[in-house]
Amino acid sequence: MSDSVVYAVSDGVATITLNRPDAMNSLDTPTKVLLRDTIQTAADDPAVRVVVLTGTGRAFCVGQDLKEHIGLLQANDEAALWSTVPDHYAPIALALTEMPKPVIAAVNGVAAGAGASMAFACDFRVVADTAGFNLAFTGIALSCDTGISWTLPRLIGRAKALELLYFPRTIPAAESLDLGLATSVVPALELETTVAALAGKLAKGPTVAYGAVRQSVNYSATHTLAESLAFEAGQMQLTGGTEDHHNAVASFVAKEKPTFNGR
Hints:
Belongs to the enoyl-CoA hydratase/isomerase family. This is Enoyl-CoA hydratase. This protein is α/β, with parallel strands linked by helices. It has two domains: 5-204, 2-enoyl-CoA Hydratase, Chain A, domain 1, CATH 3.90.226.10; 207-254, no CATH class. 50% of the residues lie in helices and 16% in strands. The chain contains eleven helices and ten strands. It has helices at 29-44, 66-74, 78-98, 114-120, 148-156, 158-166, 173-179, 191-203, 207-220, 225-240, 243-253; strands at residues 5-10, 13-18, 50-55, 59-61, 103-107, 110-112, 124-128, 132-134, 170-172, 184-186. The strands form two sheets. The protein has a six-stranded mixed sheet, with helices on both faces. Strands 4-6-8-9 form a four-stranded mixed sheet. The longest helix has 21 residues, at 78-98. The radius of gyration is 19 Å and the shape is globular. The chain starts with a strand and ends in a 10-residue tail after the last helix.
């Protein structure tokens, strides 16, 4: 088994850690497969109420492993070169974006290419003050992937998204916060404790409601108001039937603080 992705679950928090620090957590094929499958495992596990994605060492993730990519180019292996987008990168983006529970990117270092794309697919991006983003795709004459064409314009608008994709550069943490790429920026030494506090808060919350809100916001991005209202109605019915909702209403009547069990 590869140890390029480390998975741990504690108190409802699943932490997925990219663990190729010597390669700046770049994504070779075994890592992509393991990351895809690990994210799906977290998405499907009812005991997991929030997911944290992070990296070890100097980088969060710098995207595709270019050493592997160059080898495939030299071998003229077209199938392996381009099947990775539908087979690996797209499922990763879908799982991060659509799972019915909150997802946090703990951006410990540079997030480039698909690494930036993965961070943008998360609900929260807690960024170390020494980290940054680089939308590196056109720098090597490639288009973009891992859902960034969908997520980035929704974060910062179409015009700015195109500018950053056309002219890739490292966007430091402070500027990332100003642009809306980062949710918050913290001193690097405080990243772990800050993320742990946020994840702990989310893990104690109404998980089904969080998932419903997440899916409603995503749905509304590509549907009409009327369609979105209908989707909202379905999600209200779903959450209205949960144990958490009934307990919360009872707690409100009793003037007590509710406890959420995520079901």
